Amino acid sequence: MAGNERLERLRYELQRRDDPDHLLVASAENRRYLSGFTGSAGALLITPEEQYIFVDSRYTEQAAEQAPGFAPVQVKENARDTLREFLSDLDPGRVGFEAGHTTYEEYCNLTDEIEAVQWVATSGVVEKLRQVKDPEELDMIREAAWTADAAFEEILPSVAPGRAEEDIALDFEFCMRRRGAEGLAFPLIIASGVRSSMPHGQASDKEIERGDFITFDYGARRCGYCSDATRTVVVGAADERQSEIYHVVLRAQEAAVAAIEPGKTGAEIDEVARDIIEDAGYGEYFGHGLGHGVGLAVHEGPSLSRRRGTTPLEPGMVVTVEPGIYVPEWGGVRIEDLVVVTEDAGEILTGISKDLVVIDA
Predict the structure, then answer these.
(1) How many domains does the chain have?
(2) Are residues 231 and 90 in the same domain?
(3) What's the per-residue H, E or C state across 169-193?
(4) Are 175 and 321 contained in the same domain?
(5) Are residues 219 and 289 in the same domain?
(6) Which helix (H) or strand (E) holds 334?
(7) Residue 173: HSE in the Cβ half-sphere, 13 Å Cα cutoff
(8) Does 291 share its domain with 246?
(9) DSSP of 231-249, one letter per residue?
(10) Last residue of a domain, which of 105, 129, 153?
(11) For residue 191, what are the CA distances in angstroms to 107, 119, 120, 161?
(12) Residue-range definition of the domain harbouring residue 200
């Protein structure tokens, strides 16, 4: 979607919410979404008629190249001094700032040093727009998912007893980068044996052992956009309990994916998976929400959870569906797909089979 169309949607949203019609945007993902600028420092000022990008000399050329629709404002020595002078000439009255991305110290500095305007906290204005992806964004997310999946399939044959989780993680990251990823979407989660009961157990020096469940939670980043997927494999043969728990999670995951359609809330989709896990007697071992949105950030709206999943799903939203069962001091299973909401259902972007993979030991 063209940048000016995103700006039009933003201005409409500010007006609809009765927020200030001037908005200061400082968060990296929101800057990139609105302007295309990928630098690590800078800010946007969106007014009813114009849009400005504040950058220092390190990013002048980059901003001109990546954000040609934004009028550049050169930051000299102090960004707040430059902003104060600019706003004094503009005389905007009220200016919104991103409350979720502004520390208390930054807020105090704004209000103390720039008194010519009334600062108004805004919440989730740009993030709401980002929830529905346009075709170009979906293409980049597909590429990220393909890159990560291909790397997973490449490293899987090298997983064997005696190898440390962190060694496998290094190979995995190298494979993703060699296949075109600009980086990881998040630190790789590789947790084996009893460590697989930790939903966010990052790779450690633990060595793989026969009989281990191994949880791989992985994602690549392409053109700024993330992917996210999880597969759990077993080393050697799965015992009866492992097989039972794996297939409970698989039934819950597949049922939740099948339930996705426009108009349903995240809470309703969460309930589908949670009911299956609870009916099987494992409800106490599924403590997190079912999923979350994915885009420029690996965790964004909408939420698929009991408490926060109030947003009705819309075509173009991309979400994870990732139920799990985690039994302390035993191990755990999580199965996760990346799913885009279509006009009438959900399309899985993850390309890896969900059959229980057995690693030869």
Answers:
(1) 2
(2) no
(3) HHHHHHHHHHCCCCEECCCCEEEEH
(4) yes
(5) yes
(6) strand 331-334
(7) 14
(8) yes
(9) EEEEES---HHHHHHHHHH
(10) 129
(11) 40, 46, 44, 14
(12) 135-359
At 149, the amino acid letter reads D
**Integer angstrom CA distances of residue 47 from 6, 176, 218:** 14, 40, 39
Q: Are residues 118 and 160 in the same domain?
A: no
- Please give the backbone phi and psi of residue 267, each rounded to the nearest 5 degrees, phi first: -65, -40
Short-list 74, 83, 91, CA closest to 109:
83
Contacts of residue 283, defined as CB under 8 A and 6 or more positions apart, other chains included, come to 274, 277
Backbone angles phi, psi at 48, to 5 degrees: -60, -25
How many residues make up the chain in this entry?
Answer: 361
- CATH number at 335 reads 3.90.230.10
List per-residue pLDDT tens for the chain, 361 residues long.
456 899 999 999 998 888 888 999 999 999 999 999 999 999 999 999 999 999 999 999 999 999 999 999 999 888 888 998 898 888 888 999 999 999 999 999 888 888 888 999 999 999 999 999 999 999 999 999 999 999 999 999 999 999 999 999 999 999 999 999 999 999 999 999 999 999 999 999 999 999 999 999 999 999 999 999 999 999 999 999 999 999 999 999 999 999 999 999 999 999 999 999 999 999 999 999 999 999 999 999 999 999 999 999 999 999 999 999 999 999 999 999 999 999 999 999 999 999 999 998 7
Q: Which CATH number goes with the domain that contains 67?
A: 3.40.350.10
Q: 161-194 burial by CB neighbour count: b if 16+ within 10 A, else e?
A: beebbebbbeebbebbeebebeebbbebbbbbbb
Distance CA 183, CA 204 (A): 20
Token pair 């173009």 is at which residue? 316
Coarse DSSP helix, strand, coil percentages of the chain, rounded to the nearest 5 percent: 40, 25, 35
